[in-house]
Structures are given as C-alpha cells and as structure tokens.
Amino acid sequence: MSGHNKWSTIKRKKGALDAKRSKIFSKIIKDITIAIKEGGISDPNMNPRLRLAISNAKGANMPKENIDRAIKKATDKDSSALHEVTYEGYGPSGIAIFVECTTDNVQRTVSNIRSYFSKKGGNLGTNGSLSFIFDRKGTFVIPQGNLNEDDFIMELIDAGAEDVELIEGFFNVTTAMEDFGKMMKKLDELKIQPETALLERIPKTTVKLDKESAQKVLNLIEIFEEDDDVQNVFHNLELTDEMIADM
C-alpha cells in the first residue's frame, strides 16, 4: 500500500502548490452538488455524503462562504444536472487507468476521454474491464499535529485501519470500503479533521516501468486531471523513489 501512499503524498503537495486552486475547489463543488441532488437534503447532519464533501472542502481550506454558496446553488431546481460516470482503459505500456468524472454533458466527456487515451498510445475499454485490478478502499490523510504516533495508530486500528503510514507529518490511512464510515465516526469522536477522506480505487498489484515509459503514463494522467469533467484518476503504475524525486 506504500506506493499508493506515496502517490497520495505527491498529489497533496501538488494541490498545496497548485496555482490552479480553483480546479480543486471546482471538484469539491461538484461533490457537494451531487451529494445534495442524490440525497435530496442540504443538511449535512442528515446527508452523510454531503458531510464528507464539506469535510474535504475544509481540508482543502475552501472558504466557508464558498461552501455555503455551493450548497445554496445545489438546492436551486434550475441548476445544471450533473452525472457521475466512470471510464476504464489502458495507457502506454499497458498501464491500467480508471477515470471518475462528474459532467453535465456525458457525450462531451466520453469523447474527450477516448481522445486522450488514443492520442497517447492507449485505448478506452468497457466498464468493468479493470474490476480485477482495483479494490475500492477508504483513504484518509490526517495531519499529525500534536498527536502521539503510537497511541493514535492504535485508535486507527481499532476503527478498522488496514494500513497506516506516517509520511512527512501526515498519517496516510487505508481502510476496507465497508469500514469507511466507521473511521469517519472515530475521527468525529476524536474531533480530528482529516485533510482528505475519500473512497478510492487501489491497485491490487502495480507495474514497474523504466523512467521514460513511466513518464509517458504520467503525462497522460496529467492530461486527464486537467479536464474539468475529471474528478479522480487511478492507475497501477509503480512509482519509484527516482520518479518521485523528479516530480
């Protein structure tokens, strides 16, 4: 799981330094909108998915007025309908790539995703074609602050943590999908605000490539992440320390 945690650390740093901070906020606003549209309730106490979206918004330092504005807009009956769609395919060197999108135009989105794959030497597959490669897991990034490492890790294990790593002042925690809510409840009880709390697709095994081939895959992943319709990108590329140093 450490390879995934390395990737999470890289994404966190990129997010913190990203000049396109609005891109991060845009993703969160879509999460808030979907949560309210699907749950039919704008009260986070009664809508677990909305509560999670707000938690992630706070972790990303989104201003409260932005959060409130997003909630108000999502309750507007005339707001654009958003759809959650996923795409699966293989990138350069056969690396598996799973793309999660939220869009108001599915036809546009699938056309763009197919184009990115084909232009970079990959191909779009059918839904379910990568189900044997990825597991759905809960992932949490929690600032260490003044928390005692040993004591806190024991608390996390009691709440269902499968894997915990302390990396550069942040606990990177992985749970089974069914223990995601249990971990959220434990953090609420401890009054701890995670920087992120997500359901992600974690590869069961990873593929190691040479530096040049790996860079081609990373270039494709970056193209996906720059698309406004794309919420998350998951892959099974093994990240070496050398690649991480370059990133």
Question: What does the model show?
Answer:
This protein is of the alpha+beta class and 247 residues long. It is built from nine helices and eight strands. The chain has helices at residues 2-17, 21-39, 48-59, 64-74, 106-119, 149-158, 180-189, 211-226, 241-246; strands at residues 83-90, 96-103, 123-124, 134-143, 161-167, 170-176, 196-203, 230-235. The strands form two sheets. Strands 3-1-2-8 form a four-stranded antiparallel beta sheet. A four-stranded antiparallel beta sheet has the order 5-6-4-7, sandwiched between helices. α2 (21-39) runs antiparallel to α3 and α2 crosses α4 (64-74). The radius of gyration is 18 Å and the shape is globular.
Topology (elements, then pairings):
Blueprint lengths: L1 H16 L3 H19 L8 H12 L4 H11 L8 E8 L5 E8 L2 H14 L3 E2 L9 E10 L5 H10 L2 E7 L2 E7 L3 H10 L6 E8 L7 H16 L3 E6 L5 H6 L1
Antiparallel strand pairs: 1-2, 1-3, 2-8, 4-6, 4-7, 5-6
Helix pairs in contact: 2-3, 2-4
